[in-house]
Design a protein that fits this description.
The chain has helices at residues 12-15, 40-48, 70-74, 86-96, and strands at residues 2-8, 32-36, 53-57, 79-85. It is of the alpha/beta class.
Length: 97
C-alpha cells in the first residue's frame, strides 16, 4: 500500500495552479514543489507539474530532479507531496518535521 499525502505550505497553489498561471493577471509566480518518493507514482506526479519548479528526493532512485538531501528538496517549497510506501511514511514524516 502506498501512502500519498500533500502538505500544503501555502493554500495558494490550489487556487492558482502553476499550469494555469497565464490566466492570472494579478499574481503570476512560479510555485516550488517537492516530491518525496520518486517511484512510478512520484515521477508521474512530478511530470504533471512540469510548469512548476519541482525538486524531488528518494534514497533509492536517481533522477534528474533529485536533490542531494531531503532538506535541500523541501526548503523554500510551497507544497510537499509525500509518495512513499506506508511502512516508510512515519520515518519520512519524522525526518521532515
Amino acid at each position: 500500500m502506498i501512502f500519498v499525502i500533500m502538505l500544503m505550505v501555502s493554500y495558494q497553489i490550489m487556487s492558482k495552479p502553476c499550469k494555469y498561471t497565464y490566466m492570472s493577471t494579478v499574481n503570476e509566480r512560479q510555485y516550488n514543489i517537492a516530491v518525496i518518493g520518486l517511484g512510478k507514482l512520484g515521477k508521474a506526479i512530478a511530470n504533471q507539474l512540469a510548469d512548476c519548479n519541482v525538486t524531488g528526493w528518494d534514497p533509492f532512485v536517481d533522477d534528474e530532479i533529485k536533490s542531494s538531501s531531503l532538506y535541500e528538496a523541501i526548503k523554500d517549497v510551497d507544497t510537499i507531496f509525500i509518495i512513499v510506501p506506508s511502512e516508510c511514511f512515519k520515518q519520512v514524516l519524522e525526518d521532515i518535521i
